[in-house]
Structures are given as C-alpha cells and as structure tokens.
Design brief:
With 235 residues, this protein is α/β, with parallel strands linked by helices. The chain is built from seven helices and ten strands. The protein has one domain: Rossmann fold (3-Layer(aba) Sandwich), CATH 3.40.50. It is 31% helix and 17% strand. The protein starts with 20 loop residues before the first helix and ends in a 14-residue tail after the last strand.
Length: 235
C-alpha cells in the first residue's frame, strides 16, 4: 500500500472472502486517501425497495434521536420526519410534496418523547389520524421515498432501484419532482421500468436517461461502449 509519503509498504492483513480491502483499512493516518474513499462510500445510500408488510420497519415506532439521513431500510423514517419538524423546524418542502401527491392530506408528526411516530389525515376523515401501521402500501412507500429524498442531510450519492413499485401511476409526477429536488443537493442514480417516471424526469432536464436493452440474450445499456463511454445512438 502507498502511505501518506507515497512510498509502498507491505501490509499484513487477514481478509475474509466476504470482506473488502477498503472495509479493513481503518488507519486514516497511514492511508488518508483510501480512508477518505472508504468514508465516502459508507455515506452512500442504496434504496432497493421498502418493505410494507405488517412487520415492516416503516410501520414501527423508532427511537427519537436526531436523524438527518434515512437508513437504507427506512427503519428510522419517523425520526427523519421528527428531525425535520422539531429540530430543523422546516417541513415546507415535505408538506408541499404531500399535498401534491395526496391532495387535501396532511402529514402528522407529533412531538416525540422517547419514541418517534407519524401519521396522516385525509380529506375524507379530517379529524382522524391514520397511524403508520394503517397506511396503504403505496402511501407508505411514497412517504419513505419522500423521507429519503427530502431528509435534512442527503448522502453524496443515492441509488433508487425501481422506486415506482407499488405506487399508483398518478404518483409518478410527484415522485419525479422529489428526484428533481434532491438532485439539486446530491447525485442520484435512478433505475425504473416506468416510462412515465422516466419522461417526467427527462422533462426536468436534470440528467441523462439511458435505455437498458436485451441483445442476443445479454442485457446492455444502449449507447455504452466497451471502454465505458457513452455514444448517442440514433434509432
């Protein structure tokens, strides 16, 4: 390994097959550049769907601690909302997004004690707060995406894999707005099967849209060359 002085030195390290070199190098004084890479990667978030079954972490109370970034499984969603509402004191974007996605509905974030929670009211039942465990799968999933993309502090990189799953088609435009707003603060990699969502993001002009195709049994990204560069392809 190259140390801070640029000289190579042999490192005796026991690495399991399930481990990586970056994961085991934990000496920032000897390898500052590699440590910076490791810490950056640890901040990344990969949101590969959210569980919405009865035992889903999204439906449970969570510890009321300051939570600026949503965990990959969404287990601290209530704390993310509480951080915005009661520590940051700024839920304007979140409120607007809820209103856009569910006209007339409101997100309710009670002042937390030891545990944090959230619920929603709907125009049909304005005096009835529906707790997280009562919400539909699609509503809960959209709230989780809102928590991931509107959190107080976004990670330097967010990957969203098929975020449209379980969502009503009418939520594609509000979801695209979430992505567009978050892209002003971080880098986002979005994989989707929804043409409506892709078109909405494309219209915003925030990044490149690449089509995944199958050719001779292999999955490829259209326009991606073997050396890693893209080339615009005419139909």
């Amino acid at each position: 390994m190259r140390g801070e002085d640029g000289r190579r030195a042999q490192v005796d390290m026991d690495v399991l097959n399930s481990e990586t070199i970056l994961g085991r190098l934990e000496d920032p004084s000897r390898y500052p550049e590699l440590d910076a890479v490791r810490r950056t990667l640890l901040q990344w978030r990969f949101y590969h769907g959210f569980r919405t079954d009865a035992d889903s972490p999204l439906r449970q109370l969570c510890a009321a601690v300051a939570t600026p970034t949503l965990a990959s499984n969404g287990a601290d969603l209530a704390a993310v909302f509480a951080t915005l509402a009661h520590l940051r004191g700024d839920t304007a974007d979140l409120t607007a997004m809820i209103s856009d996605a569910f006209p007339g509905a409101r997100l309710i974030v009670p002042q937390p004690g030891r545990m944090a929670s959230f619920g929603m009211t709907f125009p049909e039942f304005p005096n009835r707060v529906f707790e997280a465990w009562e919400l539909s799968d699609g509503t809960l999933r959209f709230l989780a995406l809102a928590g991931a993309l509107l959190a107080y502090r976004l990670p330097p990189f967010i990957a969203l894999n098929e975020p449209e799953a379980s969502l009503h088609e009418d939520l594609m435009e509000p979801l695209a707005k979430l992505v567009v707003r978050a892209a002003e603060r971080t880098q986002i990699w979005l994989v989707t099967h929804s043409a409506r969502l892709a078109d909405a993001v494309t219209t915003a002009g925030i990044g490149k849209v690449r089509e995944v195709i199958k050719r001779d049994g292999a999955t490829q990204i259209k326009g991606l060359k073997p050396w890693g560069e893209y080339e615009d392809v005419e139909e």
